[in-house]
Structures are given as C-alpha cells and as structure tokens.
Design goal:
CATH architecture: 3-Layer(aba) Sandwich
Structural class: alpha/beta
Order of helices and strands: EHEHEHEHEHHEHHHE
Largest sheet: 7 strands, parallel
CATH topology: Rossmann fold
Distance between the termini: 38 Å
Helix content: 40-55%
Bound molecules: nicotinamide-adenine-dinucleotide
Number of domains: 1
Shape: globular
CATH superfamily: NAD(P)-binding Rossmann-like Domain
Strand order of the largest sheet: 3-2-1-4-5-6-7
C-alpha cells in the first residue's frame, strides 16, 4: 500500500535503514536513499533497482539544515519520511561513558544527528505533506530514550527528544492526514553493533545484554520492515503519536 509513494529514508546506506529501503523498494515505492556516504546510498539504489524497484540516491548530512532543505527541494515532494539516521557512539558500543564523566564537548555528536537531524528533515518535508493533506513520518528511536541507558545518557536524551517531537507533530498535523510515529528499537545486529556480535557474541557483555530480552537474540533489520510499511500505508491512517517497540520483549532483569 506504499506503491507509488515517494519515501525518503535517512541513513539508509546500511543497517536498519538499508533494510527499510529494500522493503519499501520491493513494495513499489519510489525510494529516496539518503546517507552521509554517497557510495553507500548508490549501492543501496543499485540493489533496489536490481530487484526491479525504483530508487534515487539522496546523499546529504541530516545535521546540516541547508543541505537538507536543498536536497528535499531537488528530490521533489516526499510522501513518507523515515528518520532513521542515528549515531549511538563512535564505534559500535565504544565511546560509552557515565554522564557524570562526560563534558559538553562530548554531547554534540549525539544531539546533532539523533535530535537535530530529525528536526531538520521533519521541518523540511512537513509543509508539502500538509499542502497535500497526506503524509507519514516515522522516526527510529531507541529504548535508550524510553527506559534509560547507563553509559548512553546523551544518546538516550536525544532519542527521547526526537520521540517527543513526533508526538507534537502528530497532534499538530493529524487534521491534514499527516501521521507521526516512533519505532523504538532494542539492541540490533547491524554494522553499528557488528563488532560486539561478530567478535564477542559469546562474551559476558553480549550475554549480559541478551539476558534482558525475552527473545534472546539481537534484532535484525527484517524485524522492523513490516511495521514500518504498515505505519507508512493508508492502513496506518488512524495510528499517530505512538511509540511502538520492536525490541524482543526488552525488560530490565529478566
Ligand atoms: N543498532 C542498534 O542496536 C540500535 C538500537 C536502537 C536504535 N537504533 C537506531 O536505529 C537507527 C539505525 O541504526 P543502525 O544500527 O542501522 O546504524 P548504522 O550505523 O549501521 O547505519 C546508520 C547509517 O546512517 C548514516 N548516517 C549517520 N549519520 C548520518 C548523517 N548525519 N546524515 C546522513 N546519514 C547518516 C551512516 O552513514 C550509516 O550508513 C539509528 O537511528 C539508531 O540510533 C539502533
């Protein structure tokens, strides 16, 4: 039901975003594949086209509002925005620190992509969605922002901010048939976290993480795609302002 829709997916060059781009492409959408890295965007575009889908590379930095506005103007109207680009730390689970041990200089990289990136892209596409009286905005957030994340406090704060933005956008724009929702992920197996699983899958750290998941495996991009397709479709027209967890039943201390 997303066939023919123009779908902009940020950070779609790998991981969850790539999985979403392939799924939207297979569903008949025109996929605008954003990534900071041009080559990653182009590779995913090639994959979608090779499977018979329709896609265009849209490389830009979501942190740079001027670039976002220019790119959105150049690509044409966006029916569905998926705010997926994110940054949980320098290298996978590296760069984690207790908040009391961080300084303001450490906070910017988390806030810029996970919060400002979502502000920028959402602001850039909303006026056209309102004018068209149809639009869907999905933001990929994290349980770090929902339940807290020792060692990832600023990342969690940025994700919680993005989730809050979606709730307000939902309330302001529902009368224009524009919906806004969050998909909150638990620990995934993607290039972001691959070092943990590939090299340390049996490590005490990995086992400790999975002990908090009813389904004792990390999520994979395919776990997310059907929900995203539903929320982006006409069938999702009465679901808005929600945060839906795709997290294997994450809960502290299972
Ligand atoms: N991996 C996890 O365990 C996990 C858990 C919860 C939430 N999430 C969230 O899911 C989303 C996707 O995560 P992933 O694991 O697929 O990440 P990933 O690092 O594997 O892929 C993210 C992609 O986003 C791109 N990107 C980064 N900054 C960008 C920018 N400023 N502008 C444009 N593109 C940019 C990167 O180049 C990369 O290709 C993120 O928002 C992340 O915070 C991930």
């Amino acid at each position: 039901m997303t066939s023919g829709r123009r779908v902009l997916i940020t950070g779609a060059g790998q991981g969850v975003g790539r999985g979403l781009a392939l799924a939207f492409g297979a569903a008949g959408a025109e996929v605008l594949v954003n990534d900071l890295h041009r080559e990653r965007s182009e590779n995913v575009v090639d994959e979608i086209r090779a499977a018979g889908g329709s896609a265009t590379p849209a490389p830009f930095d979501v942190c740079d509002y001027a670039s976002v506005v220019t790119a959105v103007a150049a690509t044409g109207p966006v029916d569905v925005l998926v705010n997926n680009a994110g940054n949980a730390g320098a290298e996978g689970f590296g760069g984690r620190a207790r908040f009391a041990d961080t300084e303001p200089v450490d906070w910017d990289s988390f806030l810029r992509v996970n919060l400002y990136g979502v502000l920028h892209c959402t602001r850039a596409v909303l006026p056209t969605m309102i004018a068209n009286t149809w639009g869907r905005i999905l933001t990929v957030v994290s349980d770090a922002g929902r339940t807290g994340d020792p060692g990832g406090a600023v990342y969690g704060a940025a994700k919680a901010g993005a989730a809050g933005l979606m709730r307000s956008v939902a309330l302001e724009n529902g009368r224009f048939n524009v919906t806004a929702n969050n998909i909150s992920l638990g620990t995934m197996r993607t290039p972001l976290t691959e070092p943990l699983w590939a090299e340390h899958g049996d490590s005490p750290q990995a086992k400790e993480i999975l002990r908090n998941y009813a389904i004792r495996r990390p999520g994979v991009p395919d776990d997310v795609t059907e929900l995203a397709l539903l929320l982006a479709s006409d069938h999702g027209s009465w679901i808005t302002g929600q945060t839906i967890c795709v997290n294997g039943g994450y809960s502290f201390g299972l």
